[in-house]
């Protein structure tokens, strides 16, 4: 199972979470890729792409992600297994909490990605629905609030990673339909 954690991070908190995910069992061999250095062609080498994105400036993706926005539109995500995590501040920016994760998710899901890793909204207080699933019950990915709930971060990451591990074991959709990542199927 080849995993990439692709993150954009302005003040490095999203990068720290990428490091923490890569320290969890099953994720130790993940490649950490700063979106600023991303080579789109290499993304087809991975069975699972984990995208990390903070929200800035009232619901916006950071500039590092905005810089690749158009390239994302060109990439074929069909059949690609993907998961998302987002950083935000639910007290200071409740109306836009982790919105960018929702925006990025919607963009990539619309291109045919298979998305795993929804996360319960229990334990958060906020007023936005952009990062929620259609039924509004869960976040589309892991929401991390290191500004207000730093004490919960490590435990949330650990639980999400073990949740991903069980989903990965249960799915046989490691392989892109074009077979480009066939060589890295075995876990
Ligand atoms: C000026 C400013 C604007 C922000 N805007 C939002 C926002 O709209 N929504 C949100 O959830 N968090 C917002 N945040 C909180 C950041 O997402 C949070 O600090 C995050 O951990 C930053 O991640 P990074 O260090 O990887 O860039 C904002 C923070 C600042 C300082």
TrEMBL record:
Keywords: Electron transport, Flavoprotein, FMN, Transport. Coiled coil: none annotated. The keyword Cell division does not apply. SUPFAM superfamilies: Flavoproteins (SSF52218). The keyword Transport applies. One of its GO terms (molecular function) is FMN binding. Its cofactor is FMN. Residues 3-165 form the Flavodoxin-like domain. PROSITE patterns: FLAVODOXIN_LIKE. Pfam families: Flavodoxin_1. Belongs to the flavodoxin family. Low-potential electron donor to a number of redox enzymes. This is Flavodoxin. It comes from Erwinia tasmaniensis (strain DSM 17950 / CFBP 7177 / CIP 109463 / NCPPB 4357 / Et1/99).
